[in-house]
Design brief:
mainly beta
Length: 223
């Protein structure tokens, strides 16, 4: 039942984003993109970036790096995949290494002024292990899914993409990991082939006190 409610809420958000975008098409602050075509939805590119994750209730943080690629397959549908690695130096006795591979499919529409409301669904596999004091080592593997909705707004020299996501895994409720994410990304194509981005998001992790902020930046290459 909770999953059904979440999917309904996400669908409602997607509709609301589209409605807002449609109502904003007459605004002068939403000019069409320049000759490079601002935005990333519907474009073929690869990217590489760095990110940090700061836990709200501790002084510890996570540092990581990732790569990914996006590929339009038909009109209004993109597929993407990526891999990232992060390390959490939690305590003197534990250094947690996390690997994550993911794939997504994104459905979108383009309305006036190039605004693109979208909804995305995906699967991921993550595996963690720790190093440190003998007796504290562990290993953990999880398979998960996610659903996101938002809209991409192209300005003259850059684009802004707010979105909300829900992530879950396939474990039992008592051992599962669920979280809501609200974030925004600002990106720009510096040339016709090279771009850059920065993003920030807040993760509301359910059932734990591990809420966190994530900030990232990187480069993109069209091919």
């Amino acid at each position: 039942m909770n999953t059904i409610k979440i999917l309904i809420s996400t669908a409602a958000l997607c509709v609301a984003s589209a409605a807002f975008a449609q109502s904003s098409t007459s605004c002068s602050w939403l000019p069409k993109g320049d000759e490079y075509g601002q935005g990333t939805i519907g474009k073929r590119y690869a990217e590489a970036g760095l990110f940090t994750q700061s836990l709200r209730h501790t002084s510890h943080s996570v540092a990581g790096a990732g790569i990914s690629a996006n590929l339009p397959i038909i009109n209004h549908i993109d597929i993407s995949g990526g891999y990232d690695y992060s390390i959490f130096n939690a305590y003197d006795f534990a250094h947690i290494h996390t690997h994550r591979a993911s794939g997504n499919i994104t459905l979108f529409n383009t309305i006036e002024d190039g605004v693109k409301p979208f909804v995305s669904v995906g699967l991921e596999r993550s595996w963690r292990d720790s190093s440190g004091t003998v007796g504290n080592a562990f290993a953990d593997t999880r398979n998960g899914w996610n659903v996101s909705a938002g809209a991409e707004f192209p300005y003259k020299w850059f684009s802004v993409t707010p979105q909300v996501s829900y992530q879950d895994d396939f474990k039992t409720t008592s051992d599962s990991s669920q979280e809501w994410t609200v974030g925004v990304e600002v990106s720009a194509w510096v040339t016709s082939k090279i771009g850059a981005y920065v993003n920030v998001s807040f993760n509301d992790v359910l059932h734990t006190a591990n809420d966190n902020w994530v900030t990232g930046a990187g480069v993109r290459f069209r091919f």
